[in-house]
Amino acid sequence: MKSEKKPDMQTEYDEAQVLYETGEYQKALEKFNRIAPDWPDLSVLNYIGCCYIGTQDYEKAEEIFRSLIETSPDWERPYFNLARVLLEAGKEEEAYAYLQKAVEINPSNADSYFYLGVYYRKKRQWDRALDCFLKSEKLDDRDAEVHINLSACYAETGELEESLSEAQKALAQRPSDPDALFNVSRVLIWLKEYGKAFRVLHDQRESVQDDLGLLKNLFVSALRLGKYDVCTETAKRILAIDENDTASKDFLTDIQYRTERMS
């Protein structure tokens, strides 16, 4: 039987959690590995598997989660985490079986419904995806990823006000999140709220400057508002990422033609 947690081990565990939550997966992995031999429960091994997902070492992640399922078959976490790995590998039907098992084991776990929603979203079964994400949101409405996925699903079903509301919830929790910014600005453009879309993106310029989807939304909103200087700068940024973008090429060609005509 393993010994109880020592205070310094708890500190390292807490630090590793913070690193994991902020996307520092390799650093988190190193800390979790250091304390794993003496940690009194399986949570560290589960985190190690999740770190391997973060570093895209899916083979090691799969090995850990399958081992955890054998060791602790009544714990839902390794089931839905293994499903995450299988979804990445394109093994969707196998992933679905593990997600169903996770929900069966613990129908009160928000993550189980979330990843089941991800499965249905990949299958483009929007109503089922919405149902899962709504169940996940009901269990934990603090998860920005749930709101981002709800927003995307509502957009697909044409429920634009609902899509905007969920995207704004995500943006309130993560003001610089590219997916939240994309969903908010996209729906505002669809609703012809070009000024609002432009302001949202302009306020988060640092997040926008290297993201192709956000740059395209900024380009469209600026164009609709007649902000041609912003359009010119944005079109150049878009072409630096995607040299074949037709809209940006046509705009810059037109601007050059007008400039030459006026000179």
Please give a structural write-up.
This protein has helices spanning 7-21, 25-35, 43-54, 58-71, 77-88, 92-105, 110-122, 126-139, 144-156, 160-173, 178-190, 194-203, 205-208, 212-224, 228-241, 246-262. Helix 7 runs antiparallel to helix 8, helix 8 runs antiparallel to helix 9 and helix 9 (144-156) packs antiparallel against helix 10 (160-173). It is elongated and about 75 Å long. The chain is 77% helix and 0% strand. The model has no long low-confidence stretch (mean pLDDT 94). It has 16 helices and no strands. It is mostly helical and 263 residues long.
Short description:
The chain is an all-alpha fold and 263 residues long.
The 3D shape can be described as elongated
Unreliable parts: none
Helix content: over 70%
Order of helices and strands: HHHHHHHHHHHHHHHH
Counted by DSSP, the helix tally is 16
Q: Mean of residue pLDDT?
A: 94
Rg is 22 Å
Major sheet: size, sense and barrel closure? Answer: none
Beta-strand fraction estimate: under 5%
Distance between the termini: 84 Å
Number of strands: 0
Instruction: Provide the structure class.
Output: mainly alpha
